[in-house]
Design a protein that fits this description.
seven-stranded mixed β-sheet, alpha+beta, 7 strands, 4 helices
Length: 169
């Protein structure tokens, strides 16, 4: 993901999370500037950003861990596998260091919970009133030590409907 993508990410945040304080440009800029963060953008065949995702690589070499910060996919292309590709890229980044991966997800977001469960995450806690201002609850989910995920389409593949971008780290 590149700084020039921030405006589009903010636009998608407004569509995806209108009840829960969507991220503003300053939040994306801060995330992209963090040396421990990795972000990716998914683009359609015309180069339009249709999804984004980010993860923080935390801990140290002895006790590594990661935390998924965000995954967002344009509602116009939901159920096309983009969220899965983004998550698998994040998990591959985390696997390079090892350790568990954590995330929070709205307790009423059944599709996201199912996606995470399919990728080995388990609910380990409940955070009451986590999302503001809606007051929605969140599950904390954890996935133990990771392996690689084959099949993420490399950037520049001319046959790809969705491709990954370089990571700003």
């Amino acid at each position: 993901m590149r700084p020039r993508d921030i405006e589009r990410c903010v636009e998608l945040e407004q569509l995806l999370f209108p009840e829960d304080d969507p991220w503003h440009a300053v939040a994306f800029r801060s995330e992209l500037a963090g040396s421990h963060n990795r972000y990716i953008a998914a683009r359609d065949s015309d180069g339009r950003l249709v999804g984004y995702a980010g993860i923080a690589l935390l801990g140290d070499a002895a006790y590594p861990e990661a935390e998924v910060h965000t995954i967002g996919v344009d509602p116009e292309v939901h159920r096309a596998g983009i969220g899965t590709l983004l998550l698998e890229w994040l998990l591959t980044e985390a696997a390079k260091r090892g350790g568990p991966v954590f995330l929070e997800v709205r307790a009423d977001n059944a599709p996201a919970i199912a996606l995470y469960a399919k990728h080995g995450f388990h609910i380990i806690g409940l955070r009451k009133n986590y999302y503001q201002p809606s007051g929605a609850d969140a599950y904390t989910m954890r996935r133990p030590e990771l392996g690689d995920f084959p099949g993420l389409v490399p950037d520049g593949d001319p046959g790809a409907a969705v491709r990954s971008d370089e990571v700003l780290s």
